[in-house]
Design goal:
Layout lengths: L3 E11 L7 E4 L5 E12 L8 H5 L2 E8 L2 E6 L1 H11 L16 E9 L19 E7 L6 E13 L6 E6 L1 E3 L5 E6 L5 E9 L14 E6 L2 E2 L5 E2 H12 L8 E2 L17 E2 L8 E5 L10 E2 L6 E7 L5 E10 L6
Parallel strand pairs: 5-9
Antiparallel strand pairs: 1-8, 2-7, 3-6, 3-8, 4-5, 4-7, 9-21, 10-21, 11-20, 12-18, 12-19, 12-21, 13-14, 13-15, 13-20, 16-17
Length: 327
Protein backbone atom coordinates (compact mmCIF):
# COMPACT_ATOMS: atom_id res chain seq x y z
CA UNK A 1 0.00 0.00 0.00
CA UNK A 2 1.33 3.44 -0.93
CA UNK A 3 2.23 5.77 1.94
CA UNK A 4 2.12 9.51 1.38
CA UNK A 5 3.48 12.34 3.47
CA UNK A 6 2.90 16.08 3.03
CA UNK A 7 5.57 18.39 4.39
CA UNK A 8 5.51 22.18 4.74
CA UNK A 9 8.71 23.53 3.20
CA UNK A 10 8.13 27.26 3.58
CA UNK A 11 5.30 29.21 5.21
CA UNK A 12 4.35 32.86 4.68
CA UNK A 13 7.72 33.89 3.26
CA UNK A 14 7.33 37.53 2.21
CA UNK A 15 9.49 38.89 -0.59
CA UNK A 16 9.93 42.16 -2.46
CA UNK A 17 10.59 43.04 -6.09
CA UNK A 18 14.22 42.54 -7.01
CA UNK A 19 15.02 40.32 -4.01
CA UNK A 20 17.61 37.58 -4.38
CA UNK A 21 16.39 34.10 -5.29
CA UNK A 22 14.94 32.01 -2.44
CA UNK A 23 16.14 28.40 -2.25
CA UNK A 24 14.74 25.49 -0.23
CA UNK A 25 16.01 21.96 0.25
CA UNK A 26 13.43 19.34 -0.64
CA UNK A 27 12.94 16.16 1.41
CA UNK A 28 15.23 13.18 0.97
CA UNK A 29 12.26 10.83 0.53
CA UNK A 30 10.80 10.13 -2.95
CA UNK A 31 8.96 13.25 -4.19
CA UNK A 32 5.81 13.27 -6.33
CA UNK A 33 5.22 17.03 -6.58
CA UNK A 34 5.68 20.38 -4.85
CA UNK A 35 2.82 22.87 -4.43
CA UNK A 36 3.98 26.49 -4.53
CA UNK A 37 1.25 28.91 -3.45
CA UNK A 38 1.80 32.58 -4.23
CA UNK A 39 -0.23 34.92 -2.05
CA UNK A 40 -0.61 38.67 -2.30
CA UNK A 41 -3.04 41.58 -2.43
CA UNK A 42 -4.43 43.88 -5.10
CA UNK A 43 -2.48 47.12 -5.24
CA UNK A 44 -5.41 49.51 -5.66
CA UNK A 45 -9.19 49.63 -5.69
CA UNK A 46 -10.93 49.14 -9.05
CA UNK A 47 -7.76 47.69 -10.58
CA UNK A 48 -8.35 43.99 -11.06
CA UNK A 49 -5.02 42.18 -11.43
CA UNK A 50 -4.76 39.59 -14.18
CA UNK A 51 -3.40 36.11 -13.61
CA UNK A 52 -0.30 37.33 -15.40
CA UNK A 53 0.08 40.09 -12.81
CA UNK A 54 -0.29 37.65 -9.93
CA UNK A 55 2.02 35.00 -11.32
CA UNK A 56 4.43 37.70 -12.47
CA UNK A 57 5.69 38.37 -8.93
CA UNK A 58 8.13 35.52 -9.63
CA UNK A 59 10.25 35.46 -12.78
CA UNK A 60 11.21 31.78 -12.57
CA UNK A 61 10.69 28.56 -10.61
CA UNK A 62 13.39 25.88 -10.73
CA UNK A 63 14.08 22.44 -9.29
CA UNK A 64 17.77 21.58 -9.12
CA UNK A 65 19.53 18.28 -8.55
CA UNK A 66 23.15 18.65 -7.50
CA UNK A 67 23.05 22.22 -8.80
CA UNK A 68 21.72 21.42 -12.29
CA UNK A 69 18.19 22.37 -13.35
CA UNK A 70 15.76 19.57 -14.07
CA UNK A 71 12.80 21.99 -14.02
CA UNK A 72 13.03 25.63 -15.05
CA UNK A 73 10.22 27.83 -16.36
CA UNK A 74 8.19 30.95 -15.70
CA UNK A 75 5.22 30.73 -13.32
CA UNK A 76 2.85 31.60 -16.19
CA UNK A 77 4.23 28.73 -18.30
CA UNK A 78 3.90 26.38 -15.32
CA UNK A 79 0.33 27.54 -14.70
CA UNK A 80 -0.66 26.54 -18.22
CA UNK A 81 1.48 23.40 -18.22
CA UNK A 82 -0.12 22.05 -15.04
CA UNK A 83 -3.57 22.49 -16.59
CA UNK A 84 -2.60 20.85 -19.88
CA UNK A 85 -0.95 17.89 -18.11
CA UNK A 86 -3.88 17.53 -15.70
CA UNK A 87 -1.83 18.10 -12.54
CA UNK A 88 -3.87 21.00 -11.18
CA UNK A 89 -6.35 23.44 -12.67
CA UNK A 90 -6.03 26.39 -10.34
CA UNK A 91 -7.90 29.64 -9.92
CA UNK A 92 -7.17 32.66 -7.77
CA UNK A 93 -8.88 32.55 -4.38
CA UNK A 94 -10.34 35.11 -4.01
CA UNK A 95 -10.06 37.56 -6.91
CA UNK A 96 -11.61 40.98 -6.21
CA UNK A 97 -10.78 44.65 -6.72
CA UNK A 98 -12.29 46.60 -3.83
CA UNK A 99 -8.80 47.48 -2.61
CA UNK A 100 -6.01 45.45 -0.96
CA UNK A 101 -8.04 42.26 -1.50
CA UNK A 102 -6.10 39.07 -0.79
CA UNK A 103 -5.56 36.47 -3.50
CA UNK A 104 -3.69 33.17 -3.78
CA UNK A 105 -2.69 31.02 -6.76
CA UNK A 106 -1.19 27.52 -6.43
CA UNK A 107 1.38 26.14 -8.86
CA UNK A 108 2.10 22.40 -8.93
CA UNK A 109 5.68 21.51 -9.77
CA UNK A 110 5.16 17.86 -10.67
CA UNK A 111 7.89 15.28 -11.13
CA UNK A 112 5.36 12.77 -12.45
CA UNK A 113 2.82 12.72 -15.27
CA UNK A 114 0.22 11.78 -12.64
CA UNK A 115 0.43 13.20 -9.12
CA UNK A 116 0.65 10.51 -6.41
CA UNK A 117 1.63 7.88 -9.00
CA UNK A 118 3.83 5.07 -7.69
CA UNK A 119 5.54 4.63 -11.09
CA UNK A 120 6.92 8.15 -11.51
CA UNK A 121 8.53 10.82 -9.37
CA UNK A 122 11.93 11.84 -8.11
CA UNK A 123 13.56 9.06 -6.07
CA UNK A 124 15.16 9.28 -2.65
CA UNK A 125 18.17 11.59 -2.56
CA UNK A 126 20.78 12.81 -0.08
CA UNK A 127 20.25 15.93 2.08
CA UNK A 128 20.74 19.12 0.09
CA UNK A 129 20.94 17.42 -3.33
CA UNK A 130 17.38 18.22 -4.43
CA UNK A 131 16.38 21.89 -4.16
CA UNK A 132 13.68 24.26 -5.34
CA UNK A 133 14.40 27.90 -6.15
CA UNK A 134 12.03 30.84 -6.66
CA UNK A 135 13.28 34.08 -8.24
CA UNK A 136 11.34 37.30 -7.43
CA UNK A 137 10.55 39.56 -10.38
CA UNK A 138 12.25 42.93 -10.80
CA UNK A 139 8.90 44.74 -10.45
CA UNK A 140 5.25 44.00 -9.62
CA UNK A 141 2.19 45.18 -11.55
CA UNK A 142 -1.24 45.78 -9.93
CA UNK A 143 -0.33 43.58 -6.91
CA UNK A 144 1.52 44.04 -3.64
CA UNK A 145 2.89 42.24 -0.54
CA UNK A 146 3.44 38.80 -2.12
CA UNK A 147 4.49 35.79 -0.08
CA UNK A 148 5.15 32.07 -0.55
CA UNK A 149 3.65 28.94 0.95
CA UNK A 150 5.37 25.74 -0.20
CA UNK A 151 4.40 22.13 0.54
CA UNK A 152 5.89 18.89 -0.76
CA UNK A 153 4.09 15.60 -1.42
CA UNK A 154 6.29 12.58 -0.71
CA UNK A 155 5.54 8.95 -1.60
CA UNK A 156 7.51 7.23 1.14
CA UNK A 157 7.57 3.77 -0.42
CA UNK A 158 7.67 4.95 -4.03
CA UNK A 159 9.76 2.81 -6.38
CA UNK A 160 9.84 5.18 -9.30
CA UNK A 161 10.91 4.17 -12.78
CA UNK A 162 11.01 7.67 -14.30
CA UNK A 163 10.77 11.33 -13.40
CA UNK A 164 9.84 14.43 -15.40
CA UNK A 165 12.29 17.01 -16.63
CA UNK A 166 11.11 20.25 -18.23
CA UNK A 167 13.36 23.24 -18.85
CA UNK A 168 12.76 26.25 -21.08
CA UNK A 169 14.39 26.89 -24.43
CA UNK A 170 14.10 30.67 -24.93
CA UNK A 171 14.86 32.22 -28.29
CA UNK A 172 14.18 35.15 -30.58
CA UNK A 173 14.74 34.38 -34.27
CA UNK A 174 16.99 36.77 -36.15
CA UNK A 175 14.41 37.34 -38.88
CA UNK A 176 10.93 36.34 -40.00
CA UNK A 177 10.53 33.07 -41.87
CA UNK A 178 11.84 29.62 -40.98
CA UNK A 179 14.42 28.90 -38.30
CA UNK A 180 15.31 25.82 -36.28
CA UNK A 181 15.53 25.09 -32.57
CA UNK A 182 17.26 21.93 -31.36
CA UNK A 183 15.36 19.73 -28.92
CA UNK A 184 17.03 17.59 -26.23
CA UNK A 185 18.02 14.07 -27.24
CA UNK A 186 18.14 10.88 -25.18
CA UNK A 187 14.88 10.95 -23.20
CA UNK A 188 11.31 10.24 -24.26
CA UNK A 189 9.23 13.39 -24.79
CA UNK A 190 5.62 13.41 -23.59
CA UNK A 191 4.66 16.88 -24.84
CA UNK A 192 6.04 20.25 -25.87
CA UNK A 193 4.61 23.52 -24.56
CA UNK A 194 4.98 26.45 -26.96
CA UNK A 195 4.75 30.16 -26.13
CA UNK A 196 4.43 32.75 -28.89
CA UNK A 197 4.65 36.46 -28.11
CA UNK A 198 2.52 37.41 -31.12
CA UNK A 199 -0.70 35.51 -31.80
CA UNK A 200 -3.74 36.28 -33.95
CA UNK A 201 -5.86 38.99 -32.36
CA UNK A 202 -8.39 41.49 -33.64
CA UNK A 203 -8.06 41.71 -37.41
CA UNK A 204 -4.41 40.54 -37.39
CA UNK A 205 -3.62 36.90 -38.13
CA UNK A 206 0.16 37.05 -37.67
CA UNK A 207 1.98 34.81 -35.21
CA UNK A 208 5.45 34.21 -33.81
CA UNK A 209 4.83 30.55 -34.68
CA UNK A 210 2.65 30.57 -37.79
CA UNK A 211 3.76 27.06 -38.74
CA UNK A 212 5.71 24.35 -36.90
CA UNK A 213 7.34 21.18 -38.22
CA UNK A 214 9.17 18.40 -36.37
CA UNK A 215 12.35 17.05 -37.94
CA UNK A 216 14.09 13.86 -36.81
CA UNK A 217 17.55 13.37 -38.31
CA UNK A 218 16.62 16.07 -40.81
CA UNK A 219 13.46 14.25 -41.95
CA UNK A 220 9.93 15.46 -41.24
CA UNK A 221 8.19 13.02 -38.90
CA UNK A 222 5.26 12.69 -36.45
CA UNK A 223 4.30 16.34 -36.97
CA UNK A 224 5.39 17.11 -40.55
CA UNK A 225 3.43 20.36 -40.56
CA UNK A 226 0.96 22.12 -38.28
CA UNK A 227 -0.34 25.66 -37.94
CA UNK A 228 -0.63 27.95 -34.92
CA UNK A 229 -4.44 27.78 -34.83
CA UNK A 230 -4.25 24.00 -34.46
CA UNK A 231 -1.45 24.18 -31.89
CA UNK A 232 -3.47 26.63 -29.85
CA UNK A 233 -6.67 24.59 -30.19
CA UNK A 234 -4.82 21.51 -28.92
CA UNK A 235 -3.48 23.52 -26.00
CA UNK A 236 -7.01 24.56 -25.10
CA UNK A 237 -8.27 20.99 -25.48
CA UNK A 238 -5.64 19.72 -23.03
CA UNK A 239 -6.06 22.57 -20.53
CA UNK A 240 -9.86 22.45 -20.66
CA UNK A 241 -12.44 25.07 -21.55
CA UNK A 242 -12.38 26.42 -18.02
CA UNK A 243 -8.94 27.91 -18.68
CA UNK A 244 -10.64 30.53 -20.83
CA UNK A 245 -13.04 31.44 -18.02
CA UNK A 246 -10.31 32.47 -15.60
CA UNK A 247 -10.24 36.12 -16.60
CA UNK A 248 -13.63 36.74 -18.10
CA UNK A 249 -15.46 39.90 -17.09
CA UNK A 250 -18.90 41.47 -17.63
CA UNK A 251 -19.31 45.16 -18.32
CA UNK A 252 -22.32 47.41 -17.79
CA UNK A 253 -23.76 48.46 -21.11
CA UNK A 254 -23.52 52.17 -21.90
CA UNK A 255 -26.53 54.10 -20.65
CA UNK A 256 -27.77 51.22 -18.49
CA UNK A 257 -30.64 52.14 -16.14
CA UNK A 258 -29.98 52.43 -12.44
CA UNK A 259 -32.34 49.58 -11.66
CA UNK A 260 -31.77 46.32 -13.49
CA UNK A 261 -28.54 47.31 -15.24
CA UNK A 262 -27.88 45.73 -18.60
CA UNK A 263 -24.77 43.57 -18.65
CA UNK A 264 -22.86 42.76 -21.82
CA UNK A 265 -21.79 39.23 -22.70
CA UNK A 266 -18.63 37.77 -21.19
CA UNK A 267 -15.41 39.45 -22.28
CA UNK A 268 -11.76 38.99 -21.30
CA UNK A 269 -9.22 41.26 -19.74
CA UNK A 270 -6.58 42.76 -22.04
CA UNK A 271 -3.98 39.99 -21.82
CA UNK A 272 -5.44 36.53 -21.31
CA UNK A 273 -3.03 34.06 -19.77
CA UNK A 274 -4.08 31.26 -22.14
CA UNK A 275 -3.94 33.17 -25.42
CA UNK A 276 -0.26 32.71 -26.25
CA UNK A 277 0.15 28.95 -25.79
CA UNK A 278 0.37 26.08 -28.25
CA UNK A 279 0.80 22.37 -27.57
CA UNK A 280 2.39 19.35 -29.21
CA UNK A 281 1.05 16.15 -27.63
CA UNK A 282 2.99 12.88 -27.70
CA UNK A 283 1.31 11.02 -24.83
CA UNK A 284 -2.44 11.64 -25.17
CA UNK A 285 -3.44 8.48 -23.28
CA UNK A 286 -0.74 8.86 -20.57
CA UNK A 287 0.19 5.21 -21.17
CA UNK A 288 3.47 5.55 -23.16
CA UNK A 289 1.80 4.36 -26.40
CA UNK A 290 2.65 7.48 -28.42
CA UNK A 291 5.75 8.75 -26.60
CA UNK A 292 8.26 10.52 -28.81
CA UNK A 293 11.46 8.49 -28.38
CA UNK A 294 14.63 10.47 -29.10
CA UNK A 295 17.23 7.98 -27.87
CA UNK A 296 19.66 7.06 -30.63
CA UNK A 297 18.78 10.03 -32.81
CA UNK A 298 21.54 12.36 -33.96
CA UNK A 299 19.34 15.45 -34.25
CA UNK A 300 15.81 16.43 -33.27
CA UNK A 301 14.51 19.93 -33.94
CA UNK A 302 11.48 22.11 -34.48
CA UNK A 303 11.38 24.22 -37.63
CA UNK A 304 9.34 27.32 -36.82
CA UNK A 305 8.00 29.70 -39.44
CA UNK A 306 7.53 33.14 -37.87
CA UNK A 307 5.49 36.07 -39.16
CA UNK A 308 7.06 38.23 -36.44
CA UNK A 309 10.61 37.82 -35.14
CA UNK A 310 9.94 38.12 -31.43
CA UNK A 311 10.38 35.99 -28.31
CA UNK A 312 9.46 32.30 -28.32
CA UNK A 313 9.60 29.76 -25.50
CA UNK A 314 9.71 26.00 -26.01
CA UNK A 315 9.31 23.64 -23.01
CA UNK A 316 9.81 19.94 -23.81
CA UNK A 317 8.37 17.63 -21.14
CA UNK A 318 10.90 14.80 -20.92
CA UNK A 319 10.75 11.45 -19.15
CA UNK A 320 14.06 10.51 -17.56
CA UNK A 321 14.45 6.78 -16.96
CA UNK A 322 15.89 5.65 -13.64
CA UNK A 323 18.20 2.70 -13.18
CA UNK A 324 16.64 1.28 -10.04
CA UNK A 325 15.42 3.45 -7.18
CA UNK A 326 18.37 5.83 -6.92
CA UNK A 327 18.76 9.22 -8.60
Amino acid sequence: MATRNRTIIRQEQAFAAGDAAITDNLPVNPVSFVDVTIRGATAAALTLPTFGNMLGVLSRIEVLFKGSSIISLTPADLFFLQAAMGWLRGVAQPHADTGADRWAVTLRVSLSRRPYWMNEGFPASRPGELQIRYTPAAAFVAVQTPSLNVECEEILDGTFQKYLKYTTLSRTPAAVGESDVDLPIGNDIAAILLFATTVPTGVAVTSSMREVRLLIDNQEALVPRTRWDTLHAQAQEMAGAQSWMLEHVHRLAAGAPAGDALVEAAQWTGVHISANYGWLEFDPLRDDAYLFKTNGRSQVKLRINADVADAQRIVPVELVALGGAAA
